[in-house]
Structure formats: C-alpha cells, structure tokens
Design brief:
Helix content: 25-40%
CATH class of the largest domain: Alpha Beta
Number of helices: 24
Strand content: 15-25%
CATH topology of the largest domain: Rossmann fold
Shape: flat
CATH architecture of the largest domain: 3-Layer(aba) Sandwich
Bound molecules: coenzyme A
Radius of gyration: 32 Å
Length: 696
C-alpha cells in the first residue's frame, strides 16, 4: 500500500477553486503540510488552483501518478476510474458520498465501482470517506481541519466524523499519529489490509481502529491474531448484528447477543477491546507512550488518602495486584517520609507532600523489584509545586522500563503539570479509574503475549454416524433432532450420557426403571414436541413402580391432549443424574464469524443469569480453559467451602468436542447441551439433555 502512504505524486480530481468546497480543502491540505511529492489538481474549468497548474483531466498530466484522490459528484466517479485505468494508476481514494450508504441506485453505483477497479487492478479506499493522512510523508490527503503531530499511533475509522473528532482531541492533547485513515464504505480496502500494512510500518507502534462491521470474520481473526503478537491492536466496535439472535430457539442462540461474536473474536485475537470512545483514548495514550508492565504488581503513590483508596478499589476489581513493597524500600521511605505517611500500598506521602517527596518516593518504588508499574496520583494542595513535580516524574520516567501512569486530579491548578506530561509522553488522566483501566489493559495484553502457542486438538469421532443422522432428519423435512438422535450425535463425539431406555408400554417402562435404578426421569420422545416440559412431557424424581406407571399415563395423555397430531415414538426412561454441577454448552452461528461455542452455568435460570462465555470455532485448549475461568460462577466450579472441585478437564474436553463438531458439521445452526452435569475432579461429566437444530 506504499502508493497510498508514500506517493511520489498525487492528483486531486475535483480540486476546486472555491474556498469551502471539499475539493478545495483537500488540495489546500496537501499543499500546506510540507508534502514533498508532485501535486496535480484536476479541474476542467480552470488553469490554476491555489497557485498550482491545473489539468483538465488525468490523461493530460504528462507524468506518472501514484495516488489519485477523487472528489467529484457521484455520476462522474466511474469516468475518473476509467481514466485512472488508462493512466496506469493503482491507488485511488474516493471521497465522494452517495454510494452503498444511501442504498438503491447508490448501491448499484458502488457495485459498478468495485467491478471497474477490480478489472483495472486498482486498490481503492472509500468511497464516502474523509481521506488519508500519513505524517511520515507529510501527506494530508483529507478534508480534515488540521494535521496530526507525527507519532506512533496508526488509526483507521469506519466513521469520518469520528476521525475529525479524534484528530481534534489529539491536537489538543499533543498525541501523535503515524497514519490516519478514513475507511468509508470499505468497497475494496478494509481494516484487514490496513492492519496488515500497519503491522509492517515501523512508524506505527499501536494500531487503533473504530469499526462498525467486519465482513470477513475469519481472515480478520487470522490477520489480527498474528499482528497482535507484534504490536497492540486497540479496537472499538459499534453497531449491532442482531440477525441470527432474533430467530434463536435454543438458549445458546438467545444468549448470543448482537456483539457476542465480536467480543469473542477480539479476545481470541489478543485485540485490546475498548468499550467506549473514552476507553479508546485512554488505551491509545497509554499503549503508545509507555512500556508494557512485566507483571500485575502496581504501586500507587499519592498525596491524599481518598483517591488512593479509589485507585486501590479499581485495582481490586481488575487483574492488577497491589503488593507490599520490599522491607528495604519501607526502611528507605521511613528515612525521609513523615511518620504519619503510609508505607504500604497505596503509599500515601500525605497532604503536605512536596515535589521533592514525590521524587524521592518514586526513586525508591521504581527500584523495588516487587513492583511492575507505578500509578502516581496528585491532588493540588497548597504545598505542592505542580510543575516541579511533573518535571521530576518526567525525568525519572526516562530512566525506567516500568510504565508510569499519572492522574493529577482537578483542572485549573494541575493543567500546567498535565501539559508537561503530554509534551513528554507520560499518560495522564483526570481520574484514577482511567489510569487503572489503562494499566490493566496493558497488563492483560502482556499476559496474552506471554501465552504459549495455541494448541488445537482433534480426537477420533464417528463422523459417518452423525452425517447419517443429520441426513435422515433433513430428509424428513425436519430441522430439530429428537432427543434420541441428539444423544446419538453426542455419543459419536465421545460424550458420556445418562442411561436411557426407550419404551412404549407401562410394563416396559417399569422394567427399564428397575434396570437403570431408581430414581428415574421419564420424557416424551417425539419429533413434534420440542419444549417437552412445557407440554407436560417430562416427569422427574420417580422413586418407584407406581410413580413410573402414573408418569407413563400422565405424559402420554398430556401430549395426546395438547398436541393430538404429534408423532409419539415412545417414552424415554432415564437415569436421574445427581451429584454434580450443572453447566450448559452450546453452538450458535454468527453471520460474519461462523459457529461459536458457548459455555456457562446451566440450569433453568441460564437465560436470566447470562453467566456464559463464547468463543469462535475452532476453540483452542487455552481458549476453552479461559472460557471456564471467565464465567462469574467459576468459583463454584473450583469448589467453595470445602466442596470438591468440579472436573474442569471434563468441561474442557466437552467444549473442544463441541468445537470439533461445529467445524465438522456447518449444518448445525444451534445446539444446547443443558445440563451437562459435571462430577467432582476425575469423575467426568454426563450430558443429560441436548437439542440440535440443523439446516440442509
Ligand atoms: N474532473 C475534474 N474536475 C471536475 C470534474 C471532473 N470530471 N467534474 C467536476 N469537476 C470539478 C468541478 O468543476 C468543481 O470545481 P469548481 O468548484 O472549481 O467548479 C469540483 O470538481 C467539484 O465538483 P462539484 O460539481 O462542484 O461538486 P461538489 O464540490 O459540490 O461536490 C463532492 C463533490 C465529492 C464533495 C460531493 O459530491 C460529495 O460527495 N460530498 C460529500 C463528501 C463526504 O461527505 N464524504 C464522506 C466524508 S466522511
């Protein structure tokens, strides 16, 4: 993509003579920020614009053109592209709006645009974009107001408006950028191309992106995963993809909300996920200027108790730790801090602290090898010299490989201190919680980097058997499997199932129950009864012959009454599985990312509690373990109050088996195993109930 970012020559088709027009602003931006390549305005109605010779069309330009910026009304764009083809131009930015984003004729025009550029071998950014900026080549081919400072953040955005806002913020905060790209409609070049390009760009240390959609989920994940190992990708995703969730009939489908797949994909790729614009700024500032912490151990240095406690609370809710500092460090601090100071984390150097006290304390803390990162809080007391303190922190930050994040709280008095930090690349935030969030994101990214290579396993399974079941279901014009079929599918993938015997008479039910052992559960087996409990098709806790006989009668009469046309294949007499934790596993499908696996705490309240984790298929061993640890009720699985831990390896095995199944059989639209009863460590797990929806 070199011609986009470092072109030797740029033509602006639609460069305007009239101030205030987009074509005028783009040309002005290219001319005023020291771009050193050749610039060719193209406009048939004039000979010069802004002192530059103008050409009536691209073909009249005698020299080769590396990059063309198009800012003519929509009906003229295709003609300009044809000229680009004739002139052997390979890189084009189309600013013009009025394409896919307006629908109808606009969508059609975009299709033609894509066809033209593909035929011509042209790469295109846009249409409907603000343009592009590269600070290394001083190229500002956009109509944004201003030029960002040179820096290490490579930014792309699907929203032009957000580009403008971020640019203004960055100028106000002295934040520098390497590249600044408005993606527009992504008719050709997408976030995937830009992530790839920025991975290889030595001026870019952090990749920052705002996305509304991702079209090719799998390529995105592959690229993002490998680039994340080189440099951090910080991403915010807005908008929803609710299709799929609406039609869900399983728990898993219902729990897969609009952004579930994105959340899962970002986790799996090591993308630092910002959930608000504010977080995006906070993370960008911290990642671009500070080294990553080697571990989670943070020291808070503060001149006031309250903010120190607030920061400590925020650390407590994060993955960070607030350890005690070394004994020797405490001794050193005692030698110069007043006895009323707090020598334990948070280290409170109290209200009359001077800049000298901050400096000496920081020297001790930065030298302490039990500490990985330092958070410096300050409230503007009468005793403190803000500028001196900020300068002392800047000087110390130059000689340490530990990240330093600051929060000088207040506004008017602390402003000069913040300015010093901004000028010297020390992240500074108005509130301690933001500072903690930044450090936490950096630590989590470090953890992701430290992870071993992901391990994907495949086990021996009975694929033909499952294929045959699915084929027979679709042949019968059904999409839902009945329980017996679902059980066979699970068995083929090595799940352990509760004991089950299908019977069609009361007598057989009684003998099945005594063979299985009391208590038992009885369920209707019918392809036409999906919500078995709701229809009176399930009886649990049956302790003896009499109860089994009654249940047989009740279930059959309930179904005959409520669903007279239902085909009844019999009644399943099942072992009543007890003595374990009920979890749920499932498969659902996302339009962009394909099948996903869900894991969570099971039982009847699953949709209320929503304590579930999702990952995109294929799920690695590490992903499976992370899913298990991610749910809020993980402590219950690990064992509380002397209870034995649940068999976590059995859960991992089940997640991986389901992931393998989703990969083998894309025809599975949704599936639930609910519950999977997980027994104590080493004793395995039993699938009690399952449902599958397939599509030919
Ligand atoms: N080749 C070269 N120049 C041409 C041309 C052609 N084929 N056709 C027209 N021009 C010239 C015009 O003469 C005019 O110059 P002038 O002002 O000196 O007369 C200039 O190109 C612009 O054409 P004009 O017809 O005046 O259009 P415009 O400036 O009003 O609008 C766009 C053009 C592209 C800005 C407009 O169609 C548009 O899309 N605006 C929205 C852009 C946007 O919001 N993008 C997304 C941002 S996130």
């Amino acid at each position: 993509m070199d011609h986009f970012f470092n072109p030797k020559s740029v033509a602006i088709v639609g460069a305007s003579t009239k101030q205030g027009k987009i074509g005028y602003d783009i040309l002005k931006n290219i001319l005023q920020y020291s771009y050193s390549g050749a610039v060719y305005p193209v406009n048939p109605r004039t000979d010069t614009i802004l002192g530059q010779k103008a050409f009536p069309d691209l073909l009249s330009i005698p020299d080769p053109i590396d990059l063309v910026i198009v800012s003519v009304p929509p009906p003229r764009v295709l003609d300009v592209i044809r000229q680009c083809k004739e002139k052997d131009v390979d890189s084009v930015v189309v600013i013009t709006a009025g394409f896919k984003e307006v629908g109808g004729a606009g969508s059609h025009l975009e299709e033609e645009l894509v066809k033209e550029i593909k035929e011509a071998g042209i790469r295109l950014i846009g249409p409907n974009c603000l343009g592009i900026i590269d600070t290394a080549s001083f190229l500002n081919a956009s109509f944004a107001a201003g030029m960002p400072l040179a820096g290490h953040i490579g930014f792309f955005s699907q929203s032009g408006a957000l580009c403008v806002a971020i640019l203004d913020w960055a100028l106000g905060e002295n934040i520098g950028f390497s590249k600044f790209i408005s993606l527009g409609n992504k008719a050709d070049i997408t976030e995937i191309d830009l992530i790839r390009a920025m991975a290889d760009d030595e001026n870019t240390r952090v990749i920052l992106g705002y996305l509304e959609s991702i079209e090719d989920g799998h390529t995105f994940m592959n690229v993002a995963q490998s680039v994340s190992k080189k440099k951090p990708i910080i991403m915010i995703k807005s908008g929803t993809t609710s299709a799929g969730a609406k039609a869900a009939s399983s728990h898993t489908g219902a729990l897969a909300g609009s952004n579930t797949a994105y959340n899962a994909a970002f986790k799996q790729c090591g993308i630092v996920h910002a959930h608000s614009i504010q977080e995006l700024f906070v993370y960008a500032t911290a990642f671009a200027s500070q080294p990553l912490p080697k571990g989670p151990r943070v020291a808070i240095v503060t001149n006031s108790g309250g903010p120190g406690i607030i920061a400590a609370d925020a650390c407590d809710l994060s993955d960070l730790e607030l350890p005690s500092i070394k004994k020797e460090s405490v001794e050193r601090l005692r030698s110069f801090l007043p006895p009323t100071a707090s020598f334990y984390n948070p280290i409170d150097i109290i209200g009359d602290a001077t800049s000298e006290r901050y400096k000496k304390t920081l020297e001790v803390i930065l030298a302490d090898d039990l500490i990985d990162a330092v958070l410096i809080l300050l409230t503007p007391t009468a005793a403190i010299d803000i500028v001196e303190t900020a300068e002392a922190i800047v000087a110390l930050a130059k000689n340490t490989d530990k990240p330093i994040i600051t929060s000088f709280m207040g506004e008017r008095k602390v402003r000069p201190g913040r300015k010093i930090f901004q000028d010297n690349g020390i992240p500074t935030f108005g509130y301690p919680e933001e500072a903690v969030a930044a450090l936490n994101a950096m630590f989590r990214y470090r953890q992701w980097l430290n992870q071993p290579e992901k391990e994907f396993v495949r086990v021996e399974v009975a694929i033909p058997k499952v294929r045959q079941i699915f084929a027979s279901v679709t042949e019968q014009k059904r999409s839902d499997l009945i329980e017996i079929e679902a059980r066979e599918v699970l068995e083929a993938y090595n799940f352990t199932l509760s004991k089950n015997i299908l019977v069609n008479t009361t007598k057989k039910a009684v003998s099945a129950a005594s063979e299985i052992g009391y208590p038992v559960v009885m369920k209707i087996a019918s392809p036409d009864v999906l919500h078995k409990s709701d229809m009176g098709g399930v009886r649990a806790g049956l302790e003896n012959e009499r109860m089994v006989e009654e249940a047989f009668f009740d279930i059959t009469s309930n179904i005959r009454q409520r669903l007279p046309n239902a085909r009844i294949m019999g009644i399943s007499v099942q072992e009543m599985v007890r003595g374990g934790r009920e979890v749920i596993l499932g498969i659902s499908n996302d339009i962009q990312f394909g099948p996903m696996i869900m894991f969570g705490l099971g039982g009847i309240y699953v949709e209320v509690l929503k304590d579930v984790a999702f990952r995109i298929v294929p799920v690695s061993v590490e992903d499976a373990d992370a899913m298990i640890r991610e749910i809020r009720s993980f402590p219950l699985l690990r064992g509380v109050r002397g209870e034995p831990a649940a068999d976590l390896l059995a859960i991992r095995k089940s997640i991986l088996a389901l992931s393998q199944m989703a990969l083998d059989f894309p025809e599975i639209i949704e599936a639930d195993i609910n519950p999977l009863v997980v027994r104590p460590e080493g004793k395995g797990a039993v699938a009690v109930d399952a449902r599958f929806t397939v599509q030919e």
